[in-house]
Write a structure and sequence with these properties.
Length: 339
């Protein structure tokens, strides 16, 4: 990468923060100049770990990666915006819709590049799936079903499974289909003794009538990351653990039974598993954000406004579960011209 090297900072050295530090240390054209974590010290490569955000800002980063607990995203993000520092904020964007809106306004009004770390958008299987849907390979899309389950992650303490895990599925569903959520209906359980929910089931529909279904939990010994999109020509299945995409085509079987001819059923046809290059999603995400900061645009970045919409849908899911009603979502505000 040519031109001046970018100076990057990192806030948070938890499980995800350490992954960000690893990738930033390898990223062409970028120098990781400092990390903020209460423990202080240095990384193995000598990068300083300072205890406060003010000390990190004194190192003059061009952009920072926010990987601290979700409850702190608003405070940290607002401080970065106030100092003119671009930011890649881990998902979810914020702990509440109000906080997410404040972050959107803070970065947009200053013209700063900012993004949300919805890493599934950079998974090879989902990128391939989206490209094929955009090309019309499935025809009309009927339904999106996701399953995201596994054991409880002890790294999470401040939010429940809806904001931590289901936000992946909310974002990827809207992204691969190009459609907004119109309504959601949800039920939750809390069985681990924590204040937050650890299991949720969601049903709903998108603006074009596509049906959606999400099963998300921290209560299963089975780790699963499954996305199935069914349409008029067949079904795509993406496994984001292995980054595999498989296509199940509808078969064509004729029948002489006149009474059944009116029923437009399908039968099993060809199955294809696509061979695609499998680059690490976190590295691709960082490359896209680096390029956006260097170029002053937001191409390839999950914008804060997109992150806000995901927070709004997650809030509707929690409202639906709490009130035991279906919740309709208003149309999202559009990105500002030129974003």
């Amino acid at each position: 990468m040519g031109g001046a090297r970018l100076r990057a900072g990192l806030i948070g050295l938890g499980a995800m923060g350490r992954n960000h530090a690893r990738v930033l240390g390898l990223l062409d054209g970028v120098d990781l100049v400092g990390v903020t974590d209460p423990a202080g010290g240095t990384l193995a490569d000598g990068t300083p770990v300072v205890p406060t955000l003010d000390e990190l800002l004194a190192l003059r980063p061009d952009y920072a990666v926010v990987a601290c607990p979700t409850a702190l995203h608003e405070e940290v993000g607002m401080a970065l915006a106030a100092h003119g520092v671009c930011a890649l904020i881990e998902k979810p964007l914020a702990h509440s819709v109000v906080a997410a809106r404040r972050l959107v306004d803070a970065f947009e009004t200053r013209g700063l590049v900012a993004g949300v770390g919805h890493i599934e958008r950079f998974n090879p299987a989902l990128r391939n799936l989206r490209t094929r849907l955009e090309a019309g390979e499935l025809g009309e899309v009927f339904q999106v079903v996701t399953r995201r389950q596994g054991p409880f992650p002890h790294r999470i303490a401040d939010v429940g499974v809806v904001k931590d895990l289901a936000t992946h599925d909310i974002d990827l569903t809207g992204w691969v289909t190009g459609q907004e959520y119109a309504s959601v209906s949800a039920r939750t359980l809390s069985k681990s003794g924590r204040a937050h929910e650890d299991m949720v089931t969601v049903t709903g529909d998108l603006a074009d009538g596509t049906l959606v279904s999400h099963l998300v939990n921290w209560l299963s010994p089975l780790k699963e990351r499954f996305t199935a999109v069914t349409g008029e020509r067949g079904c795509f299945v993406a496994d984001t653990l292995t980054a595999d995409l498989t296509y199940y085509a509808n078969g064509a079987v004729t029948t002489e039974w006149e009474a059944l001819r009116a029923f437009r059923g399908v039968s099993e046809g060809d199955m294809i598993r696509y061979a695609t290059p499998k680059r690490e999603p976190l590295l691709v995400e960082h490359e896209q954000f680096r390029d956006a900061v260097a170029g002053g645009g937001s191409s390839g970045v999950v914008t804060l406004r997109e992150g806000l919409r995901t927070v709004e849908v997650a809030a509707a899911v929690l409202e639906s579960a709490r009130e035991r009603v279906s919740v309709r979502l208003p149309a999202a505000r559009r990105e500002p011209t030129g974003a």
